[in-house]
Structure to design on (357 residues):
């Protein structure tokens, strides 16, 4: 009996280690493309080849249907990728998506959209299979997915689980509707250029979407942010969730219809670097103490993870140091970088000295 238990434990450990090794080998990569350098239409083989070489693919490569009921052609020019400009309504909808999957990597993804009017133009930005399904809504047929869409003074979001393909509310529970947050000034009749952002913390499986309205370039400034979605039910767990990630793809996709233009796409693996761990608006000694307490045990930004890697380590200290201030940074840069083991020993020593007798 003891021998069987030991064997079972060994097999379990081997499985976990194998999973970790595969995950590390299959880590997704950062990707950036203006989408303004392609010329032609998505049904063209030359366009498909160029887009594929850049790390993307299309949900559909079809053109005008024989019965004239749809035309999901994406038209490329120096302005970007135009969706549904050749066919009005849902019949013109299509999605462009990354070839790689991203559900197991923390990331920040952004894309700029140009709309004539949000009264007709549909805009979607999300993570999942990126398939055209019921009513042209992405992945609305049993595939795990999460996406945001700006619409009529609202920033809306939705998620789909990997259990039955049902909608999820931000907590991960079944839902009957989309989440909505106000986006004042996002009028359906107005043309405009906006930037969308998605952020995923792979360690906690938490996702948020946000909107920079009337985007004019430069750093992203959120005018509206979705609730934080708990996507645990979109990930395979070997028992309850069997049709989640990675059984299904977790590509980053964008698309829509009625002539919406997408450009300047980027996904940065590891997420945006943030050393303001207590969110007080400044990077200071309090943030260092948070990093110190989280070293080796923390898994998120609030515990000292500055780079979104899911662990608190020396790399996060390096980010804190560069954000802390000019004089402090200059002084710190003259000190050799300690190893993680040394940092752990120093932290333990500091904790011991701080104890009262």
């Amino acid at each position: 009996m003891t021998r069987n238990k030991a064997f079972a434990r060994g097999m379990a450990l081997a499985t976990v280690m194998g999973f970790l090794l595969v995950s590390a080998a299959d880590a997704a990569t950062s990707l950036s493309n203006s989408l303004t350098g392609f010329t032609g239409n998505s049904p063209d083989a030359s366009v498909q080849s160029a887009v594929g070489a850049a790390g993307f693919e299309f949900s559909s490569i079809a053109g005008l249907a024989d019965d004239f009921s749809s035309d999901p052609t994406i038209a490329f020019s120096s302005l970007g990728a135009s969706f549904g400009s050749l066919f009005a309504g849902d019949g013109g909808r299509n999605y462009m998506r990354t070839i790689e999957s991203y559900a197991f990597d923390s990331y920040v993804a952004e894309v700029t959209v140009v709309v004539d009017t949000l009264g007709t133009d549909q805009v979607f930005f999300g993570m999942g299979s990126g398939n055209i399904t019921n009513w042209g809504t992405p992945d609305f047929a049993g595939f795990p997915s999460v996406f945001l869409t700006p619409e009529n003074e609202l920033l809306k979001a939705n998620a789909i689980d990997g259990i039955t393909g049902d909608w999820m509310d931000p907590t991960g529970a079944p839902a009957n509707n989309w989440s909505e947050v106000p986006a004042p000034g996002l009028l359906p009749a107005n043309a405009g250029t906006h930037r969308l952002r998605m952020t995923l913390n792979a360690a906690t499986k938490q996702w948020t979407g946000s909107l920079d309205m009337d985007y004019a370039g430069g750093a992203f400034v959120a005018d509206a942010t979705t609730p934080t979605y708990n996507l645990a039910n979109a990930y395979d767990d070997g028992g309850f969730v069997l049709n989640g990630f990675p059984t299904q793809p977790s590509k980053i996709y964008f698309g829509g219809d009625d002539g919406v233009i997408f450009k300047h796409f980027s996904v940065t693996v590891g997420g945006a670097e943030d050393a303001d761990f207590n969110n007080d608006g400044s990077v200071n000694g309090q943030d260092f103490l948070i990093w110190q307490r989280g070293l080796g045990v923390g898994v998120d930004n609030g515990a000292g993870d500055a780079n979104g890697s899911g662990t608190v380590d020396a790399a996060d200290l390096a980010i804190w140091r560069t954000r802390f201030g000019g004089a402090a940074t200059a002084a710190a840069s003259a000190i050799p970088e300690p190893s993680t083991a040394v940092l752990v020993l120093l932290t333990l020593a500091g904790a011991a000295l701080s104890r009262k007798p």
User: Anything to note?
Assistant: Residues 133 and 140 are 6 Å apart (CA to CA).
